[in-house]
Amino acid sequence: MTLPPMPEAEIGVGLADASLDVQILEEKNTLTRRSMNYNKSAFNRMLPREIAVEIFSMTIPPFTPLDLDTFTDIAAPLKLGTICNAWREIAWAAPTLWSSLTLCLPHIHNPSTFAARSTLLQDWISRSGDLPLYIRLCSTSGLDWGEAGLQDLKTLLMIVNRYTARWHTFILNLPGDCHPFLPPPDKCFPLLESLGIGCVNLVDPYGAAIQEPQMMLKTPRLRMLMLSGIYYRRFAFQWDILLHLDLHTLLDLEIVAILQRTQQLLTLRLQDPIRSDDGHPLPDNAIVLHSLERLNIVHIETHGDEHFLQYLVAPNLKDFQYVNALYGILRYIPGFLMRSACSLTRLRFVGTYLLESELLQLLRASTSLTYLSLNFEAIWVNSVPFSDSLLNSCNPDVAFANGTDCLLPRLETLVYKGPASYTQKCMSDMIQARYAARQDRGDVEEGNRSPFDVAIINLVEEICNDWHGVIGP
After folding, report:
1. 24-49 burial, b if ≥16 CB within 10 A, otherwise e?
2. What is the pTM of this model?
3. Would you say residue 390 has pLDDT above 90?
């Protein structure tokens, strides 16, 4: 039996009705599954929303402003919203998940994705409620965005500038052409405590003419400032209220000029300082940083020439660290530390050429040291100052026999990594003698060693060429 043909119009109407029915059924199925998932999930039924938010908060990586271009997982809150609708509703309504933001821009400008980035930035901040904001705008490498891209960067900065009253930490590491787009001088930053400004793609950061410095003076709570690759005269800060300073790739003249204005500093970190060759003299009088307690000098791209240290004095310095990835030669650091006559408690050298006589002279002047770390693993054995002579100077029995004072009498921790430029016997004798002296002082009860003391003896038994460990007095 052959059915009569149906008109095409009637077939089309039937298909449209069927498609609509399928769509309605799919929506009902989705709603049913969503309801079942929500009702059957112990997370949704039994866990109070406040506890869920607290759990979600543990997935958000801490916002650390110490490095201008360092960041971790920047999409953690968005990932929570991909699990299910219930999680998305909780996450989207939790301001604590959105109070920190890192927006990393690609090397090449893509106008088609910029609208999405600016929308994401606005939506992200709008979900943070009234909480203080932790914002980082950066790039993993130099930007090649052109004039059109610069206008897009201005749009991004205009968005975050609307919330200056809530800035707690603001990190900017983008081309110097973006700096004029920062908030105007009349803006107030009542909550701002940490500020970082870096520069990429700036051809001549030190030779460009400075017309008028960018004012950021209304920052009553600013305590930490990080500057990287910029000419400091481009900005005007409340230098006198700073407690923590991180300077990366600045001229030595700039460093000195900044330190003359930051007399309240507690911590100072200098990375890759650059020696100026323009003939400008350094100050005649020493700069005394009375409050400075921690100084960290790091060389990654420069060999190191901290001649400006001969103009600095830090009488209350407690912690000094020097790292040189290129194994430069120390020139001014021993003199700076001895001239400061400070009571150092922690001293660390990594990757530097240091004569044994210089190290002994420095350690004899640092009788208050409780922590000493030496890392010479890439230096030839015959140039390592960590020798039997130094170990014998730290051995109280040898010092008593020679009628001299024991070196580093308060030392509690010794960390060494490098070639075995000493003998195992000399190391073992020094440890045992200091341990016995500690027992005589009553620091360790006989037969009641702590796990730390037992670990010391075990380390001594396993000393090898690349030995490194922790030694107690």
Report:
1. eeeeeeeeeeeeeeeeeeeebeeeee
2. 0.79
3. no
